[in-house]
Amino acid sequence: MTIDVRKYSAFLEQIACEIDIPPSKYQDAVDRYQAVGRWLEDGEYPDCHGEPSICVQGSFRLGTVTRPIRDGIEASYDIDLVCELATQKDRTTPRAVKAMVGDRLREHGTYRKLLDFEGRRCWTLEYAEQGGVGFHLDVLPAVPDARGLLDTAIAITDKTDNTYTWSASNPRGYGDWFDRKNAIAFQRVAFEQKQNIQRRESLVYASIDEVPDQLVRTPLQRSIQLMKRHRDLRFNHHDRIDYAPISIIVTTLAAHLYGSEPDVYSALSGIVGKLHAHAALVEGRAIEPAVAAMGLVQRRADGTWYIGNPVKPDENFADRWHEDNHARARAFFAWVDALHKDLLNILGETNPRLLKERLGRALGAAAVAKHFDMLVPPEPVLDTPPRIHITRPAKPWRED
After folding, report:
1. Which of 166, 281, 346, 382 satisfies CB 3.0 to 4.6 Å to 299 for a cystine?
2. Based on the domain organization, do 95 and 231 belong to the same domain?
């Protein structure tokens, strides 16, 4: 048995569709966070001048939504909403900003019931499942932290114990950077995908123009979704979860390394292969000059690691990789090696049963079983004539 690469790439595309949010449920999520946004915009906030600025960030903004795995089962989708109040950072405090947003949410009868306990950085609204799909809406209080007219940086609230501090962030800038990395592939696939979505979801989207850009999925976005699903399954254990690669690192490195490949398999191969080329850093060995020149993953002379935020280079996404004898760095590159074996080298598997089991462990048994026929067509059922056994034949065939 030989697996055709084009069929395998189409199979990976279908698996990514399975773990993505369906367009109809996406629209439900948009309606909900837009309603929350309007409620926040209409609020009154002491010492703030003008309406707050509301924007969605994270995987919903980037088009890399993956239904998470928690305790071995699929969980509710997470939606991240930034509520940026119109005040200056030096004229307020993180405690005050956090409280104002929480108080405004509690003023709404429904949101008060949905509101969870105060989180470290955000307020969370817990929506009940409908049709097997639920949502967590995280509202992140913030204020501008810009140093220029075109700067989109914000300061977000951060609570540890009962102490509130500011943390720097720039979700709008990061989203714009990701869009630039994804632009060529997006232009290549957008029209056809929107056409297909509108045809399937005509009750939700009356025309192609109504289908949002955020539902278009390029090979880069599909690759990130598959990587995140593989990560969630691999680290789905209490003694591993703390070392799971964080999504911002996965997304940032994948976007840097994507070469506008036209299909999912080639995009994933390119990203994982280039990541694998950095693995020698874990043992303190040199990597190829061309790889080192990228500067994406650095191990410094003092033993610390650096993976920079592309829109805020002084923010280090790998600031904890040196802890516990480089445990997170080791876990990351062990995971990259597993990605290579589980999703790329698997093309050499000749036993259909083993192929299905391996892919099921890597991407989820239910999703793989649903689309496995794309790789290995089921054996045809042969129509054989029935066998008839006559116990008392009539004469002259019966012997008395």
Report:
1. 281
2. no
Q: Dig out the tokens for 169 from the structure.
A: 């962030």
Positive or negative, the CA dihedral 176, 21, 247, 341 is: negative
The pair of three-digit structure tokens given for residue 12, joined into one six-digit string: 């990976």
- Using the 8-state DSSP alphabet, how is residue 383 labeled? -
72 φψ region: left (φ > 0), alpha (ψ -120 to 50), beta (else): left
Of 280-284, 360-364, 383-387, which range is least confident?
A: 383-387
Question: Using CA atoms, how far apart are residues 94 and 154, in angstroms rounded to an integer?
Answer: 12
Over residues 148-159, the pLDDT tens digits come to 666 899 999 999
Q: How confident is the model at residue 75 (pLDDT cuts 50, 70, 90)?
A: confident
Residues 141 and 247 in one domain: no
Domain match, 81 and 145 both: yes
pLDDT recorded at residue 267:
98
**Sequence-ordered list of residues with C-beta below 8 angstroms from that of 122, at least 6 positions apart, any chain:** 80, 138, 139, 140, 141
Domain range holding 73? 23-169
117 vs 110: CA distance, rounded Å = 15
pLDDT confidence band for 282 (50 / 70 / 90) = very high
Can you tell me the distance from the alpha carbon of 80 to that of 199, in angstroms, rounded to the nearest whole number?
29
Q: From CA 103, how far away is CA 344, in angstroms rounded?
A: 50
Residue 396 in domain = no
* Range name among 26-30, 34-38, 40-44 with the lowest pLDDT average: 26-30
d(CA 59, CA 395): 80
Q: What is the DSSP string of 82-149?
A: EEE-SS-GGGS-HHHHHHHHHHHHHTSHHHHHHB-S--SS-EEEEEEEETTEEEEEEEEEEEE--SST
Q: Please, how many CA atoms are within 13 Å of residue 204, restricted to the half-sphere of its CB? A: 20
d(C-alpha 360, C-alpha 345), whole Å: 15
- Same domain assignment for residues 368 and 245: yes
Closest Cα partner for 73 from 261, 233, 290? 233
pLDDT of residue 392: 63
335 closest CA partner among 230, 226, 224: 230
